[in-house]
Here is the input.
Amino acid sequence: MSRQKLHSINEHFYNKYGMLKQDFKIEIDDSKNEQLLIDIENNPEVFEKYFKQFAVNETYFFREYLPEIFLQIIQNMENKNEVRIWSCGCSTGCEAYSMAVLLEYFFPDIKYLILASDINKSNLQIVKNAGPYTERDVNRFKNMPSVYNDDLTNIVKRYFYINENYFYVNDKVKAKIEVEELNLNLLDENKYIEVFDIIFCRNVLFYFNENAWDRIVPKLANALKIHGAFVVSPYETAKRKLLDYFDLAPVKSLTGVYYLMRRPLKNNINPAEIKNVMVKENKKLKTAKKIDLNDELKQIDELPKNYSDIAIINKKNYSDFVYYNFNICNCSIIFKFYCDYTLRLKEGDVSFKILKFEEFENCEFDENNNEYIFKNCSIKLFKKIIFYITGYLRSILK
Here is the structure.
């Protein structure tokens, strides 16, 4: 098959599903080339054949410290009366059923419901039938160190049964799993609004392109209750796009393992107020190549004396600007204030996108340097920006 045709197939999946793969093999006869894209779109069997080359179905029960992560999340929940969980990209359901049997065993009084969603119909059929699963799928945890290994052995005996050498989950647990075919890339943004206490989405976002991340991540955040837990792989956790919506929550006793906790998307900071301040303070200031910045910035230097949440970690004087590294609510925030009254705010570990500074007059976001640039910024406005950031960080970190 020609490279052009391969590119067309790849582009089709890229546009509709947000997935891109460079090395998949084409196994359909060349005589069908002309109809190939039409068949992928309209023929479920052809679609399944191609999609399986994009999807990675490596999964097994109690995978990658799932018991430790999941049980700590449950233990830390304030309201355990009824727990709603979404296993996103569930594959054959090993993850969803792992959480179900852990709840049955460790928290038998908790009412729960788990949504298992995927785009692969053949996988979803296995979930609906609660099997079949192989010996390797069910007992692979025995090869991994875990404080729960003895409990997991008892769980398998209690909640699984064997039929013709394959494992199935029993009907009681099976009844707690809802199954739905879902394409995350095309998910209606209003389908789920603060429905779930926990969303497991490990090794799913990894396969989507950046544009798909922009579409999918806000929808997943909206689907999660405030302070709900969002679990992804370590690689996905490091993505800055996730940290615009979630805060890291380390799992005790497991070094380097984290889940994410949704921060409130609404807070007591009113961006309109900041905009009004920007308008009032946006007076034309004369450019001065030589001014005493230290004298100008005395008000800024005095802030830590009066506000316990604000501290100056480092201050350096350069020929045309003063560099500040602030500790605000235990977060490192970097400013540069220039002689021409330009303020640069570095967006580093903490994202200020919710404040939408770039929408304000004489402010823009420099993507190359990851900085907000405020032109004609007075000292008074500089102080107000610090206060608004402080209020914002208090609201998301309390």
